[in-house]
């Protein structure tokens, strides 16, 4: 392994290797594969390169603006509504009408772009499947390219999966969910593809390759003349939304399709973005189909935004639910904003997994899901997320009991009461306590998730929940915050400071992980490497922006082209 800035390592070569046919200025450093070459065509790569060249400076400026905002927050400033864009918040504009194909989104299922997952999710009975290149995927070259192949087959309706272990062939039903795709965030590079000597922007690779190969088929088979459809993650302000809108405009022009064909839902999953919801919708008004409460990443962002504020320490993450005032205010304002602008207000994730060997625990888990979804639909959300096909029926029943045959609540639940919500409401300190068990759970989950991510899995079942990168991020930044400010564990009568016990906790939780997964799996897995990365980030003097940016270096493998070397 070589330095972080060098992106991974170069695999040895003992024979001449085929190379991709690439346009000028494009260098593919990932492994050659004939199937991958059907995605990485010269014309598709030219489209990605055109996007990169047109927008890279805009993206770099947006990332610099994030750094400047971080500096202000670290010096004591609080995020808030921008006085300069009050005219947008108070204006009487609306987004383009919602396409009929996605009017009803009452239950959406999410998961990585893996072949079996795609088939099961599209067949699940959900209204929408969000196929994920982001937090639910470990972005290895193999995962990314096979994901593109899988999505192309899914849009064409030809996708199958032969599960030899179960002696079963999976294929699509006649009726399937609508397909949305989530590319990576603006901050993530794609280090297997270099354009003009620098790594490509990950989301432009994800979007560009998928759009180029699928827009025509999608509009005929899925979109009823619209599409493709997307989810957009990790944005912090409307400047970043404006870049996406320009990307969509350029893609539509390249394809010769009507302006406003592409539609996207933005995840409001950063604290700065909650103060920019109107502005984000305004920039995307020709392409928007709403906003979503990305609540796990939102909690992560709360800690990250206030990393320099010792008066804003979070309690155990299990206590930071939607009943906390700042979380409920965020959800209510999102509903009001979306419905005022004529688009969907999507609720949050139910991460529970059916517990097949414990009916009592399973029913308790499903009851938590029902209560969460009842809260969402009664608040005015138009739909919700589930991580497992086994939850779809329950979620669907809850939403249908309130909504009936109406496809959504855009016109019927306006939530004008939320117009009174203030910056103080959105920033209110969460209430609760910090416990040794909270510290242990953060440590155990963070290390196990990262170990799975390093070995190719980005969606990981842990303790009857389906976890993605957001959970690991909350776990990491919360421990970092507690260590930085010498927090006392005040919720279980121990009264010890985290700084005094963290090293011992890591050792004990590693031993517990080994007992739980078994010695053989522990030995073969990357648990020790994950532990080093996780603890290094938790104890760093400066908080890393994203866990996955550091860990990405461990999964990048560059393959030489047309080279011969001796063993």
UniProtKB/TrEMBL annotation:
Its EC number is 2.3.3.9. Residues 25-86 form the Malate synthase N-terminal domain. Pathway: Carbohydrate metabolism; glyoxylate cycle; (S)-malate from isocitrate: step 2/2. CDD domains: malate_synt_A. SUPFAM superfamilies: Malate synthase G (SSF51645). It is found in: Glyoxysome. PROSITE patterns: MALATE_SYNTHASE. Keywords: Glyoxylate bypass, Glyoxysome, Peroxisome, Transferase, Tricarboxylic acid cycle. It comes from the Eukaryota. It catalyses: glyoxylate + acetyl-CoA + H2O = (S)-malate + CoA + H(+). Residues 434-554 form the Malate synthase C-terminal domain. Pfam families: MS_C, MS_N, MS_TIM-barrel. Residues 179-428 form the Malate synthase TIM barrel domain. NCBIfam families: malate_syn_A (TIGR01344). Belongs to the malate synthase family. This is Malate synthase. It comes from Gossypium hirsutum.
């Amino acid at each position: 392994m070589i330095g972080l800035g060098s992106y991974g390592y170069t695999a040895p070569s003992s024979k001449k290797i085929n190379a991709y046919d690439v346009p000028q200025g494009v260098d593919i450093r990932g492994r050659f594969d004939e199937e991958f070459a059907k995605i990485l065509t010269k014309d598709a790569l030219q489209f990605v390169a055109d996007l990169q060249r047109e927008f890279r400076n805009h993206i770099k400026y947006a990332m610099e603006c994030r750094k400047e905002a971080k500096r202000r927050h670290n010096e004591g400033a609080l995020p808030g509504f921008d006085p300069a864009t009050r005219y947008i918040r108070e204006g009487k504009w609306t987004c383009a009408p919602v396409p009929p194909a996605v009017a009803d989104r009452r239950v959406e299922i999410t998961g990585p772009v893996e072949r079996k997952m795609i088939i099961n999710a599209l067949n699940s009975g959900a209204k929408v499947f969000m196929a994920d290149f982001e937090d639910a995927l470990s972005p290895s070259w193999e995962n990314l390219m096979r994901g593109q192949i899988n999505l192309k087959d899914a849009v064409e309706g030809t996708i199958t999966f032969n599960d030899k272990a179960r002696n079963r062939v999976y294929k699509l039903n006649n009726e399937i969910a609508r397909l949305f795709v989530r590319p990576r965030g603006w901050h993530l590079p794609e280090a297997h593809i270099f354009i003009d000597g620098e790594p490509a922007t990950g989301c432009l690779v994800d979007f560009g390759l998928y759009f180029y190969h699928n827009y025509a088929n999608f509009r005929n088979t899925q979109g009823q003349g619209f599409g493709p459809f997307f989810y957009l993650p990790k944005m912090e302000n409307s400047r970043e939304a404006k870049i996406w809108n320009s990307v969509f405009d350029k893609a539509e022009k390249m394809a010769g399709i009507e302006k406003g064909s592409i539609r996207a839902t933005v995840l409001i999953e950063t604290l700065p973005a909650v103060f920019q919801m109107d502005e984000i919708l305004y920039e995307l008004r020709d392409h928007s189909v709403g906003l979503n409460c990305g609540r796990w990443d939102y909690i992560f962002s709360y800690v990250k935004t206030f990393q320099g504020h010792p008066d804003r320490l979070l309690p155990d993450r299990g206590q930071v639910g939607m009943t906390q005032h700042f979380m409920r205010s965020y959800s209510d304002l999102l509903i009001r904003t979306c419905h005022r602008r004529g688009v969907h207000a999507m609720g949050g994730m139910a991460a529970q997994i059916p517990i097949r060997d414990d009916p009592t625990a399973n029913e308790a888990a499903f009851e938590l899901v029902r209560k969460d979804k009842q809260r969402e639909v009664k608040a005015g959300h138009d739909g919700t997320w589930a991580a497992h096909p086994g939850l779809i029926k329950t979620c669907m029943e809850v939403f249908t009991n309130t909504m009936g045959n109406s496809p959504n609540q855009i016109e019927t639940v306006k939530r004008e009461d939320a117009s009174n919500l203030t910056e103080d409401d959105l920033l209110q300190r969460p209430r609760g306590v910090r416990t040794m068990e909270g510290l242990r759970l953060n440590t155990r989950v963070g290390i196990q998730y990262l170990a799975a991510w390093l070995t190719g899995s980005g969606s990981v079942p842990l303790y009857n929940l389906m976890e993605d990168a957001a959970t690991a991020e909350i776990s990491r930044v919360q421990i970092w915050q507690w260590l930085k400010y010498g927090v006392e564990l005040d919720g279980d009568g121990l009264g010890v400071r985290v700084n005094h016990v963290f090293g011992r906790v890591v050792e004990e939780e590693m031993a517990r992980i080994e007992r739980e997964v078994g010695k053989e799996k522990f030995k073969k897995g990357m648990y020790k490497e994950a532990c080093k990365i996780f603890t290094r980030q938790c104890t760093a003097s400066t908080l890393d922006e994203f866990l996955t940016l550091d860990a990405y270096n461990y999964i990048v493998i560059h393959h030489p082209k047309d080279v011969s070397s001796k063993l």
